[in-house]
Amino acid sequence: MLWKINKVNTSKTSDKALLKGIPTNIISGFLGVGKTSAVLSLLATKPKNERWAVLVNEFGEIGIDGQLLTGNSDNTQGVYVREVPGGCMCCAAGLPMQIALNQLLAKARPHRLLIEPTGLGHPKEVLEVLLAPHYRDVLDIQKTVTLLDPRKLKDPRYTNHDTFNQQIDIADVVVGNKQDLYGSSEKAQMIDYLDKRANKDLSILFTQQGKLDPSILKGPSHMAQQLSPVKSHAHTPKNQPNVNELPLPTRGVLAVENSGEGFKSLGWRFSPDKIFSKKLVFGWLSKLSVERLKAVLITDEGIFGYNLVDDTLTVTELDDCFESRMEIIALEVHQDWEQDILNCQIVTNQSIFPITSNKN
């Protein structure tokens, strides 16, 4: 399985007891706005005697966020994570999402559930799936939180994007993240933009590095009271196997592409015996210009998580991972990226085989 569980016995409730009224929040936001940082911030405030579950969705086919969320053992006791990679998790009438959610709920039996859709997903349809009759008594849909970078409001690629605006329309709380990178004029522009299209009860907050007070999660979702359960979805179901569950080929690298919502992704899984030079990786990534990059890599100096957005690269040391992974999202992908990252390996006596991509 591709998800890591830290088992903590925090309840004497029987595993056969019915799950009921689990507080559930959607944490939404466009590419690179800091959703994963916000989820980590919330997990850090979790009461020690509670179990929290996180269902995380990624646009790319290669699951990265699960390892980023569980890579620091200090903050993950009593936290259960399940990934739904490969685009909008509500596709195919919500089937991929429902399977992952059912498995997560059965395993974690959580006191709170956080759902992080991909920045290019459809939070309205995700919410409709959660309102299905079979979840009516199980889940208590509470406030939806949408993170926003006010600087993006100057770019029509964002303000004209349906998903960007849907994330705002569905929100109960909009958080202007990264406030250390903008000033009062951007704040005023964000407030004006929200005032023109958002519901009148919307709460507006500002923060940096995704730091959130958990109190904002509590309370009913206004949109949940207006929507009906989803019956169908316009997306075409994917019939190929989940690439995160496939065994790696003998050469130790598996590459896969995805596309949608005007963006493309290219991602890789690497066998654990491939060790990368931290110095070389940093040098290559620092020169890369893409919409988004996430990676968890085993290097000669330890295990590190990489996050590249708005030409800013952040590196975080992690405690653990089971294999190296990387995902790049861009308007156009380049096949030479694959050789670039392979060139960052520490040279060993093992042969380096040529790599071919498995395209969707």
Would you write up a description of this structure?
This protein has helices at residues 35-44, 65-70, 95-108, 123-130, 156-159, 162-169, 184-197, 278-287, 336-342, and strands spanning 22-29, 52-57, 79-84, 112-116, 139-141, 145-148, 173-176, 203-206, 253-260, 263-270, 292-299, 302-309, 312-318, 324-330, 357-358. Strands 1, 2, 3, 4, 5, 6, 7 and 8 form an 8-stranded parallel β-sheet that branches. The chain has a 7-stranded mixed β-sheet with strand order 13-12-11-14-10-9-15. The chain has 9 helices and 15 strands. The protein is globular, with a radius of gyration of 20 Å.
Order of helices and strands: EHEHEHEHEEHHEHEEEHEEEEHE
- Helix percentage range: 10-25%
Cα-to-Cα separation, first versus last residue: 22 Å
- Detail the poorly predicted runs: 1-13, 231-238, 349-360
Helical segment count: 9
Strand content: 15-25%
Q: What's the average pLDDT?
A: 83
**Helix/strand structural class:** alpha/beta
Query: How does the major sheet shape up?
Result: 8 strands, parallel
Form type: globular
Number of strands: 15
Radius of gyration: 20 Å
Short structural description:
With 360 residues, this protein is an alpha/beta fold. It is built from 9 helices and 15 strands.
Strands, helices and their partners?
Blueprint: E1 22-29, H1 35-44, E2 52-57, H2 65-70, E3 79-84, H3 95-108, E4 112-116, H4 123-130, E5 139-141, E6 145-148, H5 156-159, H6 162-169, E7 173-176, H7 184-197, E8 203-206, E9 253-260, E10 263-270, H8 278-287, E11 292-299, E12 302-309, E13 312-318, E14 324-330, H9 336-342, E15 357-358
